């Protein structure tokens, strides 16, 4: 997927983020997440001007749901998290009575699974903070691995990736305000 | 350092900070494009975050619908895939607001419709999304 030129700025933000997280946490898991490979990949895509969203090989709701569950099965969730799956949206009914079901870009289920995973660990960090330092550190360390997961490519660099990196950087420095604001948007899970 | 130099430096620093602040507060505009070969809504996987309360779109390429008609419908989805906004239809390349009243950093996805399955139907659309 192509990205706009100022992806380079995002890369720079990520490098600062990695430095801040590494300074705050000494978790090997994070060390593996701040290498240069991701930065190189982002830089390589920076010559593309537009972002292409593809409907090649779309799947129906069942296919999207299978993609969601296949992805979720590979992810670790906090103990006691609530099981969830995307609800089937109501179909469009055209004036002539035709029922029109949406289709999904391949990767949609994966992207939703990572959104759910992220919200689960955000909640965990906020709940454990002040209660269990070990559990809170673990939650933040897991969240900090997100840029090195397959799901990261579905986060818009200009808005979603930069927001996430800023939020985690602040959290790693002990500032929960961005995470507290952001977890409000998790109410859909 | 002479007083005049100090004043000039403070002035220059203030200007830099002011411009930087204005840039930080500006909306995000992305040149986006999509393909669809389906006569129904295509839900795209990318998650975006609002940097302002309004999401708007200016198309540069609509979907051919037969005859002299070109059109495109867009709507916003919640991060969990549920429908967030009502749909907006374009038949010309004008800017239209898709949704207002969103919180800053609200996560959303895009959904587009519809491919024309008749003769000459094209699968590509494009434009500038401001959010």
Short synopsis of the structure:
Chain A is 52% helix and 5% strand. With 189 residues, chain A is mostly helical. A two-stranded antiparallel ribbon of chain A has the order 2-3.
Account of the 3D structure:
The complex is a heterodimer of chains A (189) and B (131). Chain A contains eight helices and four strands. With 189 residues, chain A is mainly alpha-helical. The longest helix of chain A has 21 residues. The N terminus of chain A is likely disordered. Chain B is of the alpha+beta class and 131 residues long. Chain B is 18% helix and 38% strand. In chain B, a hairpin with a 5-residue loop joins strand 5 and strand 6. Chain B is globular. The relative contact order of chain B is 0.31. At the A-B interface, strand 1, strand 4, helix 5 and helix 7 of A face strand 1, strand 2, strand 3 and strand 9 of B. Strand 4 of chain A pairs parallel with strand 2 of chain B.
Write the layout of secondary structure elements.
The complex is a heterodimer of chains A (189) and B (131).
Chain A: H1 7-24, H2 28-31, H3 36-44, E1 51-53, H4 61-72, E2 92-93, E3 99-100, E4 103-104, H5 108-128, H6 133-144, H7 157-172, H8 177-183
Antiparallel strand pairs in A: 2-3
Chain B: H1 3-25, E1 29-35, E2 42-43, E3 48-49, E4 55-61, E5 63-64, E6 70-78, E7 88-90, E8 96-99, E9 107-113, E10 124-130
Antiparallel strand pairs in B: 1-10, 2-9, 3-9, 4-8, 4-10, 5-6, 6-7, 6-9
